[in-house]
Amino acid sequence: MLPAEDLFVHCYVLVDDLIKDAVVVIPPRPGPAPACTDAEIITIGLVRHLMGRRSESGFVAEIRREWPRLFPSLPHISEVNRRARWLYGAYEQIRQAVLATVPADTWGQIDTSALPVKHPSRVRGPDSWTGPNELCARFGRDAAHGEWFYGFRLAVRTDLGSRLVRAWAIVPATVSERALVPDLIAGAEHLVGLLNDKGFNGRAFTKSLAAQGITNLVPPTKADRATMPATLQKIIAEWRNRVETTFRELTDTMELARHGAHTFHGLLTRTAATIAAHSIARIALPTN
Prior knowledge:
This protein has helices at residues 4-20, 38-50, 56-66, 77-86, 88-99, 177-184, 203-210, 222-225, 230-239, 242-253, 264-283, and strands at 107-118, 138-142, 147-159, 165-172, 193-195, 215-217. By secondary structure, it is of the alpha/beta class. Strands 1, 2, 3, 4, 5 and 6 form a 6-stranded mixed β-sheet that branches. A hairpin with a 5-residue loop joins strand 3 and strand 4.
């Protein structure tokens, strides 16, 4: 990872160039142009996740204390938060622009991870955690941690080799993972196979993918082990958990599991910023 000041400069130049080249298009707003530019606000969001800072307000305070000369017109935290939510679409455009520089793998993985929004003990009835298309927070089971949670799930399709997030969505907590696949592979004509966990098993599901030229590979059952080549079993065992590494980077290292959002729009913004930051970390940061 670059030193903090270099990281700010690197991300700002990347974002500013994408905006100037109209690769990232920001909707016009009424009124005079703010002293702190959109590129600066976006940079703050990206660097916060790259540095693994949990609190948005705490990170803005850290900038005022440690790097004031980089952001001489930094507004109050309430304005930073409000403008970041306005700019949430820019994070997704940045992610796509960065990904476009790297060829996609022909094999991928699909999985989901819990996105809690409230402790289950504090849920008393209907609340304001609602998104578009009747999407709302619900109770779900977090298999990775063996506990129930209240919120949503983050669904991703990653490259098997590079572990880059190629497609993502915030979905209901009780969603059937197989039902997510059509949307997550839409437009991915390059895909020839998916290496997934046992939750994606099933003859009808595998047949539907095969009709699209996509092999559905899952860990073998006891019966399968008798006929599956040992080499293939070894490959599955070694590669099947790579998507879990990506989730750990997103939810733990970059603090998405403790996002601190108070509304669905806030959660959407933080998720988009985190995944964009992850793509930048994997592709666009100098290695030394």
